[in-house]
Fold this sequence. Notes:
This protein is α/β, with parallel strands linked by helices. It has a single domain (5-292), classed as Vaccinia Virus protein VP39 (Rossmann fold, 3-Layer(aba) Sandwich), CATH 3.40.50. 40% of the residues lie in helices and 26% in strands. The chain has helices at residues 5-11, 13-19, 22-31, 48-55, 71-87, 118-124, 147-151, 176-191, 201-211, 237-252, 260-275, and strands at 37-42, 61-68, 91-94, 99-103, 108-115, 129-135, 154-171, 215-221, 224-226, 280-291. Strands 1, 2, 3, 4, 5, 6, 7, 8, 9 and 10 form a ten-stranded mixed beta sheet that branches. Helix 4 links the parallel strand 1 (37-42) and strand 2 (61-68). The protein is globular, with a radius of gyration of 20 Å. The termini are far apart. The relative contact order is 0.17.
Amino acid sequence: MDYSFPCYLLSKQSIDDRALNKDVLSALRANLPNEPLRIIEVGAGVGTMVRRLVRWDVIRQCEYVMVDEMAENIEYASAWVKAWAEEAGLSAERSGENQARVFDQSRDVRIQFERADVFDFIQKNEEPADLLIAHAFLDLLPMPQALSPLLTLTNGLAWLTLNFDGVTTFEPTIEAALDARIERLYHETMDKRSTGGDSRSGRHLFGYLQNAGAEILAAGASDWVVFAREGAYADDEAYFLHFILHFVEQSLRGHPELNAGEFAEWLKVRRTQIERGELVYIAHQMDFLVERGSSDQ
Length: 297
């Protein structure tokens, strides 16, 4: 199987759609200032969030800045915008190498593509946004020290979604002790990343945000739950599951606490379960809508 990160990001759109906490999303709608808006999304990937917000009619008049450090993500996003806009019945046009416009008679979303490390972008950004978005991203950063710099990107709101919170579940059980060991070791790799990370970032964000002077307006679970119906997974969710197992394999290959043969057999069984439509995957995550404290502005 070809493991492409942009394809992984595309494959999880339907899963993220279900997972995003609808109470937190409602609070976002209720608290957004009048348009036109300026939005900055960090770790923006291939642009699935801006597509979602347009499709869900959350934004209509907006300048949307997509920040991602991976060249392949930005390149894919800049090419893909035309396809998803036309699919939604909108016109799309490019205006320069790093800009696009998605519009019709009532909507006008201007997208700016920024390939940059998030902390480099923070240093050069001159205009804070009305809304900062970090989707499935904060649990990859060094916390809590990264939070205050990130919040300087907004004059008001931050929507912080799909923050992993310490539960990875694969069902059905293969061997309970082995399943538990793999989950524990996988989470430990998140905590030991040289670039930062936290396998329980969701619960920790309550304290981190308050210490950073942000007011939590809404919070709730945003769990990934993936299962087959009548033996088949929806959309590209089988690819997503294969990619999750690929993450686990890459993270734990050669780990001294795992027998290599036993781990290889575990992966083989899990992949067979996907092909048969038997694997259920659950990951516990948290969403937050916060308002940046006036003392930080």
